Amino acid sequence: MRAAPGRDYSARMRSSPLRSVPRVDLLIGLAIIALGTLEAFTDAKDYGAAQNPELWWVGQALVTGVLVWYRRRAPVAVFILMILAQYAWHRQGNESCPVWQLAALLIVFHTIGAHLPFKPGGTWALVGILVFDSGAVDHRFLPFQEVVYLTVMFGSAYATGLALRGYLLRAHRMSERAARLEVERERRAAEAVAAERNRIARELHDVVAHSVSMMVMQAGVLRRRMGVAQADGPSPEAEMLSGIEQAGREAVEELRIMLGALRMPQDEALPQPGLDMVPNLISTVGSSGLRVTLETEGERLRLAPGLDLSAYRIVQEALTNAVKYAGDADARIRIAYHPDRLELEITDNGGGAGPALSTGNGLIGMRERAELFGGSLDAGPLPRGGYRVRATLPISQGVPMSEATN
């Protein structure tokens, strides 16, 4: 039966305890109650009762059915109570055991094998068999044939439960193994995709970048020749060649950036944020206990998309490590724009970021991003405590944002 999670499930449990009973156990318990009631009104004398009907049998059947309902939740308690119920049954002068009681006993022996580990389950099953074989329940000496019968019957019921438990454990292990194999398959598929992306990136860089570089070089040579030939200043053709040369250089730069992007995880191939999203990043860590301030120096430049993304990722990774390891501390992000370079510095005055960051993948990833654009990154603890991550990224053909928006 399905149940809503959380508080709704608890409320339903309090309102109706039977909702937690598996449907098969509920049906078995109802069948035992019905069969016991039927025998109480029809066959009571055949089992040694004084009269037909024997109404107290109905109560005994009801108790037995309810015990079967909760056999999975408390198998040992139900097992003990069932033996005590049999003891009470025989103490009333009944010599034999009716069908519904025998069925209930077999079910609880089966439950001991199915829902308990081998050692405690086997111990309880052995104790139960010895109790019945010794005549402690019947208050009489049992003949050898009956002892063998009870031993085989109850032992077989326990063995079926033990076999079911073994089957379920094997099925669970196979399910876990299948899940691990699926994860491994997905990992290998991702590695194959990454390898193919790297191959494509190398081909693009080797073929296209070489051809564009040759075009840029030839356009530059032709422009310089035309500039020498024109004494009265550059001609329109020379200006066009200069534009071609500039566009070619930018194309080669973008190809190099694309090579790095293709080497990144697949989710980073999509449009990504830049340094303009750093304030939003700071707001997301406001509830972590880390107090972050942002300082910007120089006139903001329009960066190439790949460079802008990598700068943002460096800030994001450094800030994430500060949140994880610096604890309740102060952090400062400094972004400095220079005509030829971009400087990033993330510092905190906490006490734990250094060792964890220096041995993890975060610092490696940040350094790879910086080196992808010909930059550098260094990180380490500060003399007075805390940690600092500083990156320098070269900028080619930087354009101020004020001019770029015009």
From TrEMBL:
Keywords: ATP-binding, Kinase, Membrane, Nucleotide-binding, Phosphoprotein, Transferase, Transmembrane, Transmembrane helix, Two-component regulatory system. Pfam families: HATPase_c (PF02518), HisKA_3 (PF07730). It catalyses: ATP + protein L-histidine = ADP + protein N-phospho-L-histidine. Residues 313-397 form the Histidine kinase domain. SUPFAM superfamilies: ATPase domain of HSP90 chaperone/DNA topoisomerase II/histidine kinase. Its EC number is 2.7.13.3. The chain crosses the membrane at residues 99-118, 147-168. PROSITE patterns: HIS_KIN. GO terms for molecular function: ATP binding; phosphorelay sensor kinase activity; protein dimerization activity. One of its GO terms (cellular component) is membrane. Gene3D superfamilies: 1.20.5.1930, Histidine kinase-like ATPase, C-terminal domain (3.30.565.10). This is histidine kinase. InterPro entries: HATPase_C_sf (IPR036890), HATPase_dom (IPR003594), His_kinase_dom (IPR005467), Sensor_HK_TwoCompSys (IPR050482), Sig_transdc_His_kin_sub3_dim/P (IPR011712).
